[in-house]
Amino acid sequence: MNLNTKDFLITVNLALFKVDEVKSASVKKLPQKELMVLLEKRKRAPYEDCWLFPYGFVHIDESLDQAVYRELKEKTSLENIYFEQLYTWGAVERDPTARVIATSYMAIAQKDYIKNQAIDERDDLKWFSVNKRLVAVNKPSDMQMVSRYIVSLYNREDDITISYQVIEDITADGFEKRSKYTYEPCSDSRELMAYDHIKILDYALDRIKNKVMYTNIAFGLIPEYFTLTELQQVYEIMLGKELTKPNFRRWISKKVEETQETKKAGAHRPPKLYRLKKSSIIEDQELF
């Protein structure tokens, strides 16, 4: 048995998300929102020129949380944003050069808060739009279901496309279900993700989708004051599906309150602005 801790390396990585707007070709349509994630381009082997989440090694005198906070500040100059631990990855083969155990974190922030020169001045840090969509479901038997997803990332500035096929194979095992995942780059993927970071991204997207159902995490991605249409768009991109306007507004009325403010909207009637009810922060309300 080898208990030499010098043979192990501990790292942290951070999936930082924001919501941004894409202007519509039609002036009559509102800008569409999309989920964005920050990736770093690796400059050395292994996986040279591949993309991964910003990461760093844990120092001997710091906790995991302290390490990820330090890396976030050093690489982006960001402070005081929401982040939470996702998962710890310890597969022996995840790094071909060393025994590396990595703990992943997820962070969210409003786009206006994230605007800073630290990110813009680094050519190895890029924002990518990201989405995960279900493309096929197959049930070979009553005891198995296989779902196929496509996870796509796109950077408009440099026209970079990263696309992976995700296969989720669920089987029944007694009273439980077992899930097995495989990841393969799509034929249209111009660049690749390093290590197991496509797996980490997939895990983070599922975490976001689940958390938006029972927490107020969506409000961390928008300004304090917002229209109900803007808020619905944020929920839709986090859930990966469209929501009916009446049902959404009926449910969200428990979480938000109308203000006296309105949003400038050109020649159109200015829509009312809302904000999160402080009382709803400590109340659990599942979506629909």
UniProtKB/TrEMBL annotation:
InterPro entries: NUDIX_hydrolase-like_dom_sf (IPR015797), NUDIX_hydrolase_dom (IPR000086), WH-like_DNA-bd_sf (IPR036388), WH_DNA-bd_sf (IPR036390), WHD_NrtR (IPR054105). Gene3D superfamilies: Nucleoside Triphosphate Pyrophosphohydrolase, Winged helix-like DNA-binding domain superfamily/Winged helix DNA-binding domain. It comes from the Bacteria. Residues 33-133 form the Nudix hydrolase domain. Signal peptide: none annotated. Residues 218-276 form the NrtR DNA-binding winged helix domain. This is Uncharacterized conserved protein. It comes from Dendrosporobacter quercicolus.
